Amino acid sequence: MEGTLAAVGAGLAVIGAGLGIGRIGGSAMDAIARQPEAYSSIQTLTIIAAALVEGCALFAIVVALIA
Length: 67
Hints:
By secondary structure, this protein is mostly helical. The protein is built from two helices and no strands. Helix content is 91%, strand content 0%. The radius of gyration is 15 Å and the shape is elongated.
């Protein structure tokens, strides 16, 4: 039973990370479409934000598997 709950928790963390990174990417594309000259700064901020979301998801997966 514990393994099943850990798998559900890890799955929810992955789904949340996927949704978060998808929203970041979509918003970045909208921003680039509106201001193409700001591409490099938008890209940098997008990569940083995606890395932070991915780090939180990894932490959530580890916590789910430990607990």
